[in-house]
Amino acid sequence: MKTVNKFFIVVALLSSTCVVGQQDPHFSQYFDNALFYNPAYAGSRDMLNVTAIHREQWSGFDGRPRSTTLSIHSPLKYESLGIGLTAVNDITGPVRQTMVSGDISYSLRFKNKSKLSFGLKAGVNLLGFDRDKLYNGSNPVNVSQQMDNRTNPNVGFGILWHSSNFFVGLSTPKLLQNSYDGSATNIEQRHYFATLGYIARLNDQWKLRPSSQVKVTTGAPLSLDVSLAAIYNDKIWFGGLYRLNAAFGGFLQFQITPQFKLGVASDFGTQKLREYNQGTFEVLLSYDFNFLKKGYYSPRYF
Fold first, then answer.
1. What is the phi/psi pair of residue 199, to 5°?
2. Per-residue DSSP letters for 153-169?
3. 3-state secondary structure string, 16-29?
4. Which of 55, 106, 144, 276 is 20 to 30 A (C-alpha) from 84?
5. What one-character-per-residue DSSP string does 231-298 give?
6. Model-level pTM?
7. 207-225, pLDDT tens digit by residue?
8. For residue 98, which of 68, 53, 132 has the smallest C-alpha distance?
9. Please, which residues have CB within 8 angstroms of residue 181's CB and are 6 or more apart in sequence?
């Protein structure tokens, strides 16, 4: 197994350009993790939902990114309002981030059963820095003494329109550009997300769900994810994904019960770094608590 010295990751993390490139964790199963990007998604499933994803990026790479996210959201008794909570733990080399945010949404309902939702996000990013992990060979790496624990508050907003077979969303989950180390160089860049998806019903058993996510930020190339899922009998989901100039992969999900979904995903980089790792892997668990509804459970496709 090939490994790369941790100094390589340190240089990437402390370079302002690279911090923009992957400031926050990126998930291949982004279509099941919408609350992380867009607070307008809170309560959109019309029931209490709990979703967890664990991601091991660049497996076999020394100091690789590892990310775990947990999201909980539900409509309130007054169903035009939804609330949510997202927690993310992200570790890359010596840098640790714990992001916790609360979300609230308000929805306008239309006669065709579509909804237009507006969401607000408020949270905090707890940054930690482990100097003991900074080595270039056997020698410690000299970094700014200000790279220590920090607490960065932030706010964001989003818009989501969706019907039973279509959705489109726009969001920026972090409006404030806080500093990582007290300087004006290493700052949290503002990201803008656009998501789009559609359900094509082929027959009683088969459906197709194309979806995409675009991420735009200053000083970094446009990030575009596209995926296509085939859905069999509302029980088995499988498909492929592509990240522009970055990676390709696939995913497989099982709707074990109408309320419980289990998913796995893997992607492989298309850049030079691919020579030093065995790919990226994700596991997803999602459960809907159908407290407020009676009778037939309607499948959820996004």
1. -110, 120
2. EEEEEEEEEE-SSEEEE
3. HHHHHHCCCCCCCC
4. 55
5. EETTTEEEEEEEETTTEEEEEEEEE-SSSEEEEEEEEEE-SGGGGG---EEEEEEEEEE-SS--SSPP
6. 0.85
7. 999 999 999 998 788 999 9
8. 68
9. 144, 146, 147, 150
